[in-house]
Design a protein that fits this description.
It is built from 5 helices and 8 strands, in the order ββαααβββαβαββ. It has 180 residues and is α+β, with helices and mostly antiparallel strands. β1 and β2 form a beta hairpin.
């Protein structure tokens, strides 16, 4: 399945391309995961080439099984596209009509509107690709203020505080985006 999505912004902001992860993304993936802030918010940090190859293999397996759709987000740069983020549609199932959107942003791309544009593009794709979806959820820990802003900028509305549960030590927020 060769899906390529685009996310544009104002004319002064480079465009974004969303595509499936590839083996040749390994070095960029490892570079992104060198960031301690990114590792803090992810459950499965990538700390070695072997873990990176496993991560990439898992994204392909999940995609092929229809469970999880991960996209590498690349910024259109003058030289060549540069990895700036990951967005993922998780828990896709006919038995679960409200899958979850997740994402991370590389340290060099934060604060430039990358995450909201990528999450918005993924959300549009999800509702088009899976017309049975009723809503999408975006979850984050209460102390992740940046994720709260991304949810709001992407059109997700705060719904509730969720109690802490492993592996997350603090309560969380659930934001939702409904179809239509």
């Amino acid at each position: 399945m060769g899906i390529d999505l685009r996310a544009s912004g104002p004319p002064s902001v480079p465009g974004l391309a969303l595509r499936q992860w590839r083996d040749d993304d390994l070095d960029a993936l490892l570079d992104a995961y060198r960031d301690p802030v990114l590792r803090r918010w992810t459950r499965l940090p990538v700390t070695s080439p072997a873990e990176g190859r496993q991560w990439l293999a898992r994204t392909r397996q999940d995609w092929d099984a229809g469970r999880r759709y991960s996209f590498a987000v690349l910024q259109d740069d003058a030289d060549e596209p540069r990895l700036v983020a990951n967005v993922v549609l998780k828990r896709v199932s006919v038995h679960w009509p409200m899958p979850e959107v997740g994402y991370w942003t590389a340290s060099w791309a934060r604060g430039r509107g990358v995450a909201p544009r990528a999450v918005t593009a993924l959300s549009r794709w999800a509702f088009e690709e899976f017309p049975e979806l009723e809503r999408l959820d975006l979850l984050h820990q209460v102390d992740n203020v940046a994720s709260c802003r991304v949810a709001q900028k992407s059109g997700f509305v705060f719904q509730e505080v969720l109690p802490a549960r492993p592996p997350f030590p603090l309560d969380g927020h659930r934001h939702s985006l409904s179809v239509g």
